């Protein structure tokens, strides 16, 4: 497996030439578009990594999985799904227009930005920092790495430029879907800036693959919620490329515009991938290709 991973990374690294960095968050445009790394952690405790695995990058949209788990732990399914739906959109992750078209103000799912803002507003705690610490604590528990922190440069970069998210938060406030615009945005920008490496993502994926049990054997997420979020990862995790990814990779996965992908093969392994050049839908172009290739070679599709 180790040799195979190294060969695959070098084969797919070139695909990065066809992608583009997420320059709408200026700090993310400083990444090297040809970086590519992968880490795998299996249920048997084996760990493999290849390529630029030690590089750190920010969770971005991958954090939506974590906040969804926390919001569900805090409020239960009835409350959370009264404010955000369960259906894929077929639209870009930052689209606004459907908020006005169907059940007004209720985002279609928690994996798009509008839905994730609603979910962030539901995270319990007295201050933004307390709420952020709860998000960080769950990420650290899932990855079994107490050292995970925020990348403050990326946080400030998005905070200064995230006008579309600000517009969406105000729109959601108008419909009573979030309580407070500023604290919701603060938490959202910070959760997106949590810095990890491929190994952390692989361990987080393993935790989901083991129904909420992390690599040390600790149940850090209720079993039922680990199942629920993996289902969202299949239907909505790769934005409006989720259908194609389900066909060609068939692995529950969640991507972020930093180029990270958290993938989880139930009962088998967690996979973390990083390749910052993105395709037109905002997924890591080389990372998606690598995961599809890996799935084909090792028969990892869940379908
Ligand atoms: N797709 C993403 O990763 C989006 C996350 C990014 N922080 C944003 O809100 O635009």
Automatic annotation (TrEMBL):
It catalyses: L-glutamine + H2O = L-glutamate + NH4(+). InterPro entries: Beta-lactam/transpept-like, Glutaminase. Substrate binds at residues 61, 113, 158, 165, 188, 239, 257. It holds the Pfam family Glutaminase. Its EC number is 3.5.1.2. One of its GO terms (molecular function) is glutaminase activity. The keyword Transcription does not apply. GO terms for biological process: glutamate biosynthetic process; L-glutamine catabolic process. Keywords: Acetylation, Hydrolase. It is an enzyme of class 3 (hydrolase). Gene3D superfamilies: DD-peptidase/beta-lactamase superfamily (3.40.710.10). SUPFAM superfamilies: beta-lactamase/transpeptidase-like. Homotetramer. PANTHER family: GLUTAMINASE (PTHR12544). Belongs to the glutaminase family. This is Glutaminase. It comes from Desmospora activa DSM 45169.
